[in-house]
Design goal:
10 helices
Length: about 280
């Protein structure tokens, strides 16, 4: 008697847990649909990701619900109260179909979003390169004038004088090398200039050469473009792989549960009539 009472409580608890899990998922599903934007690709991607991430919740709920009814059947041969197994099997089949459709839909959306992102990155890089070329042309036009050439020579002379004063003063030179706030790259340059003063002239010429600076900037723009495109492709690949495989696995699980239960529906009804007859 005590064992039957304990089994009855366990069955009731499992059925309650299963029902709550299933209802909480359905509530989340309705909330995720808002605002409803079925034509928006980003909305579809976010919805698919959220559903797949929560997809295991109703499966656990279905398992708890069915185990609860199995315990009831083992005790007295029939379920107590309303039998929710048939609607649960229908819900499982529907969820299996939904997750099966998510698999190709999400892969297509992710690929299209990746292509759009890569195109946008390329356009932004081309725009940045165009602006850089315009700035270079304007600066070179200014340098072609006598005033521009004089300003450039004055700038180079000032830079060389500052470095030369530092390199000639051993105390300032040692303080600069001992300064923890000075980057190591700049310390290496100072040591290089100290060992070979001609390197200072080359450095100043490179840093004040408009074409050289433009080439450095152009290299940075193209490197950032490559990095951004690679990140977009990696994100799309990871999202497609994770969500795609997870949705496919969930679909297989739900379809097996649903179709197995629906095929055995006649046996469930027969068992229920026998229990009622007793």
């Amino acid at each position: 008697m005590t064992n039957r009472f304990t089994s009855g409580n366990a069955a009731l608890a499992l059925k309650v847990i299963g029902t709550v899990l299933i209802l909480s998922f359905l509530l989340d599903f309705l909330i995720l649909l808002l605002p409803f934007q079925p034509t928006d690709r980003g909305w579809q991607i976010n919805l698919s990701t959220a559903l797949v991430d929560r997809g295991i919740v109703p499966m656990v709920g279905l398992g708890s619900l069915l185990i609860g009814y199995w315990i009831d059947g083992a005790n007295d041969g029939g379920p107590k109260g309303i039998d929710l197994r048939f609607p649960a099997f229908i819900l499982s089949s529907v969820l299996g179909l939904i997750f099966l459709l998510i698999f190709p839909l999400h892969l297509n959306n992710v690929n299209q979003a990746k292509a759009q992102t890569v195109t946008q990155i390329s356009q932004e890089a081309e725009q940045a390169e165009g602006q850089l070329k315009n700035q270079l042309n304007q600066f070179q036009a200014q340098l072609n004038t006598d005033q521009g050439k004089a300003q450039l020579e004055q700038l180079r002379a000032q830079a060389k004088a500052q470095f030369s004063d530092l390199l000639k003063d051993d105390q300032k030179y040692k303080q600069a090398l001992a300064n923890p706030q000075l980057p190591q790259s700049q310390k290496d340059l100072l040591q290089k200039f100290k060992a070979n003063p001609q390197e200072l002239d080359k450095f100043i010429a490179q840093q004040t050469d408009p074409q050289g600076l433009a080439n450095q900037r152009l290299t940075q723009i193209r490197q950032r473009k490559e990095d951004a495109e690679k990140q977009a492709r990696d994100n799309a690949w990871k999202s497609g792989l994770r969500i795609g495989i997870s949705s496919l696995l969930l679909s297989v699980g739900y379809i097996i549960i649903g179709w197995t239960g629906l095929r055995g529906g006649g046996a469930l009804q027969t068992g229920g009539r026998k229990a009622a007859a007793r």
